[in-house]
Amino acid sequence: MASVFFQVLSRMPRVLSATDVADFRDRLCEAAERLFAEKGPDAVTMRQLAAELGVSPMTPYRYFKDKDDILAAVRTNGFTRFAEALETARGSGKGANVGEAYVAFALEHPDTYKLMFDLNQPNDDSYPELVAAGQRAHDNMSAWVKDRIAAGKMTGDPEKIGAMFWAATHGIIVLEMAGKLPKGAAQDLRNLLTVTLVKGLRPGA
Q: How many CA atoms lie within 13 A of 121 on its CB side?
């Protein structure tokens, strides 16, 4: 009787602690980020994600509703880490550090960057945490522009100016990632374009 009891007990699903859940979600998101970036989200299945972690095909469903849920979590994590990097750079008090931090993050985490900016989920609004993380990243990308305008070093619409810097910076990053620019060129060009744009945006320029 005792042996039967222990056999049944051993087959019962283990109760997961909050730490267990967080650890598995992190591992799943890490694997998903790589596969999504390599193959594109549409080509990745939940079964493939499970295989990457060596678990049963149904295991990921214990942690996420579906693949879109995983993609949203991956992108939310990316935007959050990106925003933190920009906030740290801005907190240093040196405006140039924000641009350097942007390029450094993109080149150090190319898979994350691609998923953040090279695609949109059609149901973004279904994930409030993703929307909030994306807005936080956007706010940080333009915050230093507002700092420069407040200090009298630039003049103009901060949103439009921020979009110009963003478009130019994103462009040179993508070119370096694609091998169209030599390694390190994105950071050098970012320095040059910042100086050039700031010069043209000075009051009375």
A: 23
Rounded CA-CA distance 75/29 in Å is: 9
Rg (CA), the chain: 22
* pLDDT tens-place string over residues 135-162: 999 998 888 888 888 988 888 898 898 8
Residues whose CB is less than 8 angstroms from the CB of residue 53 and which lie 6 or more positions away in sequence, other chains included: 24, 27, 28, 31, 59
- Domain 17-64 identical in fold to domain 67-205: no
Helix (H) or strand (E) holding 167: helix 158-177
Q: Is the pTM of this model over 0.90?
A: no
Given phi > 0 = left and psi -120 to 50 = alpha, else beta, which region is 162?
alpha
Instruction: Note the residue count of the chain.
Output: 205
Nearest Cα to Cα of residue 119 among 42, 34, 18, 57: 42
Q: How far apart are CA 40 and CA 42, in angstroms?
A: 6
Give CATH superfamily name and number for 67-205: Tetracycline Repressor, domain 2 (1.10.357.10)
pLDDT tens digit string along 165-177? 899 999 999 999 9
- Residue with tokens 């945006």, as numbered in its chain: 201
Contacts of 107 (CB under 8 A, 6+ apart): 173, 176, 177, 186
Q: Encoding tokens for residue 148?
A: 């420069």
